[in-house]
Design a protein that fits this description.
Elements (H helix, E strand, L loop, with lengths): L21 H4 L2 E2 L10 E2 L3 E3 L6 E6 L6 E8 L2 E9 L7 H14 L3 E7 L2 E9 L9 E11 L2 E9 L5 H12 L2 E2 L24
Parallel strand pairs: 1-11
Antiparallel strand pairs: 2-3, 3-11, 4-5, 5-6, 6-10, 7-8, 8-9, 9-10
């Protein structure tokens, strides 16, 4: 006689992933952000300027569309991308699986661990030997599911191994505000980014 619990159940939608204090410590939704802070407005995200922060926009060659924001800070790099997401379920779980497969296809190694931002991937990716002779590059993939959005980050440089640099870059990631906007968008679509409009923004 079988127990009722043996019956197959429908797979639940992926739960949202992120720090338990996300609403108060970030990354923030536009509705949660402090409106008087001097953010650099990049459309889909807003960045809080800070000493030593250098900002780059990554543009897709064919479409001239801004596809990511690169931040150089604390001897590290942080690439961020905001995506539209379902209201009730998260994207980070599925996205981690995709990243894991991509890294393995490139001949790299990847491990999942619990970080300050929730589950993250630490990947060792093969690269063409640079001036420093390195043939492997370490990267941390982080992601946070917010209300109707998902913010993905790729961390490189000192913050992959140095605790102080990691804390500084994690704080930078958490200070980001995601501006989802009210228009309907398919989940996983990149929330449009644009040139900065803040005074004094480079």
């Amino acid at each position: 006689m079988t127990e009722e619990s043996d019956q197959p159940t429908e797979a639940a939608p992926p739960v949202k992933s992120g720090p338990v204090d996300r609403e108060t410590s970030g990354p923030f939704d536009e509705a949660e952000a402090n409106a008087v802070r001097p953010y650099i407005d990049l459309g889909g995200i807003k960045i809080l300027p800070r000493e030593g922060l250098n900002l780059r926009l990554e543009v897709e060659e064919q479409t001239k569309r801004i596809v990511a924001v690169g931040l150089d800070y604390a001897d590290s790099t942080l690439q961020v991308q905001p995506f539209a997401a379902p209201r009730t379920s998260g994207l980070w779980e599925e996205t981690r699986d995709q990243i894991r497969q991509q890294v393995k296809q490139q001949g790299g190694r990847v491990e999942e661990r619990e970080g300050p931002l929730g589950p993250e991937l630490l990947a060792e990716v093969p690269v063409v030997a640079g001036a420093d002779g390195a043939t492997q590059r370490l990267a941390r993939f982080v992601g946070v599911d917010g209300p109707r959005w998902f913010l993905r980050g790729v961390i490189g440089g000192a913050a992959t191994s140095d605790i102080e640099a990691a804390a500084a870059v994690e704080d930078l990631f958490r200070s980001i505000v995601v501006v989802r906007g009210g228009s309907p968008m398919p989940p996983r679509d990149l929330i449009p980014l644009r040139m900065p409009t803040a005074p004094g923004a480079s």
